[in-house]
Amino acid sequence: METRVILTIPEELYRRAQQLARASNREVSEVLAESIVLEDEWQATEDAPASFDAGLAALEAAADAQDEKAFVAAYEAIDWPGRPAEDFVQAVNLALKFGDLLLARELATQGVKQYPNHAELQKMAYILAPPKARVVQGEPDTSWKANREWLKAHWDEHRGKWVALHNGELVGLANSLEALLEEVGEVRGKGILVAPVG
Questions:
Q1: pTM of this prediction?
Q2: 150 close to 169: Cβ distance less than 8 angstroms
Q3: Cα 138 to chain center, whole Å?
């Protein structure tokens, strides 16, 4: 049974309902009616949320449907400033479920700005933050030049052999890699080049 009702609602609420309706290809009246029905159903359960949130419901529906256009529209329709921290956590999880890492990062960052002491949002913002790279200045390694020059100069006299070079000086010579390593010992981390000449 249906009853026709005329509702007077704030303009902002109507604009949000319009955005959600566009995002889910439905009529505004359907979005509003669904939010009333769902709120009534949730109030009948023990674990009911305090109030139904059509915005998060639309975001979840779009994530479940893997509908990118509806997901972005639902995200943009939500007035994020002042939202509870749990809404940001839920939205970040939905964005990750949908596969939108950049939106998840944006939501986590926005959430942690509003709730800097919220542990879950801090963790999400940290994990989703862009990677940081730093350049560490060190002494330039010129041994490769010296080793290359040695190989050029002694190519013919050691052809077919294995050599171990350190800063352009021969530290080992053998017929096989195994024999060379037995002669020279451990070479890792010592700046020793081991190479066949051939």
A1: 0.48
A2: yes
A3: 31
CB 163: neighbour CB atoms within 10 A?
21
Residue ranges in the chain modelled with pLDDT below 50: 38-51
Amino acid identity for residue 11 in this structure: E
Q: Where are the alpha helices (DSSP H) in the chain?
A: 11-23, 28-43, 54-65, 68-77, 85-98, 101-114, 119-128, 143-153, 177-184
The type of residue at 129 is A
Specify the pLDDT at position 1.
59
Phi, psi dihedrals of residue 177, rounded to the nearest 5°: -65, -45
CA distances for 86 relative to 12, 95, 123, angstroms:
23, 14, 13
Is 175 exposed, middle or buried, given 0-12, 13-18 or 19+ CB atoms closer than 10 A? exposed
- Supply the pLDDT for residue 99: 86
Token pair listed for 155: 């190519």
